[in-house]
Specification:
single chain; 180 residues; six-stranded parallel β-sheet; binds magnesium ion; 36% helix; alpha/beta; binds zinc ion; Rossmann fold
Length: 180
């Protein structure tokens, strides 16, 4: 199970880099718990171009990630891995979403079959990164936001659109596993 970070498990406040500012969405806490109970390994895959732009350091990103891990540990939820692209969007790197690189790398290292997994995120680049890696996809959006995104030239139909991670987890739970 691959999850975007900003706007998916906590609000997207724009270049978040302070651990003290991390506030996990209540619906994300419930959703992650439900996904973990279903046996999914949970991974975060996030673009953090603030590093490449010189807004904050890789160390700041990692301290935010330690904070996220400790917050989730309070719910008994453990992340199996966190991967991020630190590069500037113009750097031409191989890892920035919508590239599937980070998903494929995590999947290979942890023995995850992407065809039986999902990518959940709040942007088209999340849907694309997931689909490019062979995952099923869930877009988190309000009806108004969805209508906005559908006008985008890069739009790609996700497997499902729901408003939050708890609803995503409920939908995933109701879906048949293609591996069975
Ligand atoms: Mg996001
Ligand atoms: Zn990158």
């Amino acid at each position: 199970m691959f999850l975007d970070r900003d706007g998916t498990i906590h609000p997207d406040t724009g270049y978040l880099h302070s651990p003290a500012a991390v506030e996990i969405y209540p619906a994300a806490r419930r959703g992650l718990k439900l996904l973990a109970e279903q046996g999914f390994l949970l991974f975060l895959v996030t673009n953090q171009s603030g590093v490449g732009r010189g807004y904050f350091s890789a160390k700041a990103v990692e301290s935010v990630h330690r904070k996220i891990e400790s917050e989730l540990a309070q719910d008994g939820v453990r992340l199996a891995g966190i991967a991020y692209c630190p590069h500037h969007p113009d750097a031409g790197c191989r890892c920035r979403k919508p590239s599937p690189y980070l998903v494929e790398d995590l999947a290979a290292r942890h023995g995850v079959d992407t065809g039986r997994s999902y990518f959940v995120g709040d942007k088209i680049s999340d849907v694309l990164a997931g689909a490019n890696a062979g995952c099923r996809t869930v877009l988190l959006a309000t009806p108004r936001r969805e209508a906005e995104l559908r006008r985008h030239s890069g739009w790609r139909e996700p497997g499902r659109v729901v408003e939050d991670l708890y609803r995503a987890a409920l939908w995933i739970k109701s879906e048949p596993d293609p591996g069975d």
